[in-house]
Amino acid sequence: MADHTMITNTTKPQKKKGKLGIILGAIFIMATSAIGPGFLTQTTVFTEKFLANFAFAILASIIVDIGAQVNIWRIIAVSRKRGQDIANMVFPGLGHLVAALIVLGGLTFNIGNVAGAGLGLNVIFGISPVKGAVISAILAIIVFSIKESGKVMDLIAQVLGGIMIILVGYVMFTTHPPVGQAVVKSFLPDDYGILFLPIITLIGGTVGGYITFAGGHRLLDAGITGEESIPEVNRASTLGIIVTGIMRVFLFLAVLGVVTAGHKLDPTNPAADAFKIALGDLGYKFFGIVLWSAAITSVIGAAYTSVSFLRSFHPFFDKFNNYIIIVFILFSTLVFTIVGKPVTLLVIAGSLNGLILPLTLGSILIGSRNKKIVGETYKHPMWMILFGIFAVAITTYAGWVSLQGIADLWK
């Protein structure tokens, strides 16, 4: 079983080369957690619907995402505390609520991630999605069963994240998208109002739920903390969003090139159809590789981050962290193989996800002014607080919309 030193130590000094690897790992763990199967479909569907105007939604969401994530990662680093502990210090019991929502949401989303991994291997090798899901789950479990699983997780996130960006970038160049038009519409869309819901949807999918804590908790577990680490944390948190944004822009432009050429996408699998139209059978295989890479890294990221929200509540969770992660992955896979993809649960989990960021970011912002949390010397910049308040306001509205969605399910 894995050596837990890498995962649990938060004070061990890091050598320069090893530190850089951890920072890159944190960047890509966050980014690849955001880039899951839903990310691919969501981006494709919005691109086909809004065409070049969708560029404005992407740009606006990236700006808000950076504001939210820099606040969260920075206070986690300065306080040397996980998100749930900060929330509990701000309001007793709030951290437990946040942890419950994140673990429940992460577990449910992981069923979809496992399904996506199975479908990816189905596209690449032609095996059944269930067999593909089981194989993918075994590979994810191996990651948390070997020595220094943290380093292995970092490396996998970097390699597969790089592969996804390269493949989607190649497809983008082959579709010859109207880049100039997309640049103009990034600032001057035809209708700002119709893009509001896509914007908050993108924000929820990028920094909602467990995702924004994936890299922040990774840096904390590796000991990259304290005021002296602020410059590195700032860069890492910003670059995590930028990597996600690059992938989103490449996919957007790739699909935009296809649909502006007059092609209509298959609504049952629009992202796969876009790749196939662009490059034929080779494009379809590329999609399989991208889908599997997105899904398996999301399986790993969701399991690692969701379980990290339990670690400070009882020594049991910290001592047996990797075992619990493995059980988390096994349970997700078992549900998929026996029941299939639980659509209603996924919809409800997605809706609840919209409620998590206002709670977590709101508690982070309050905690940033509490010297018991951040210490006597640290002062959180006011522009960051204002940026964070703006993000809380937008995501609170998104949460309200999500609650209405849950109510509609039971009508």
Automatic annotation (TrEMBL):
Keywords for this protein: Membrane, Transmembrane, Transmembrane helix
Localization per Swiss-Prot or TrEMBL: Membrane
GO cellular component: a single term: plasma membrane
Segments crossing the lipid bilayer: 20-40, 52-77, 89-111, 123-143, 155-173, 193-215, 236-259, 289-310, 322-339, 345-368, 380-400
Membrane topology: Multi-pass membrane protein
One Gene Ontology molecular-function label: manganese ion transmembrane transporter activity
Example GO biological process: iron ion transmembrane transport
PANTHER family: SOLUTE CARRIER PROTEIN FAMILY 11 MEMBER (PTHR11706), TRANSPORTER PROTEIN (PTHR11706:SF2)
Protein name: Mn2+/Fe2+ NRAMP family transporter
Origin species: Tepidibacillus fermentans
Lineage of the species this protein comes from: Bacteria, Bacillati, Bacillota, Bacilli, Bacillales
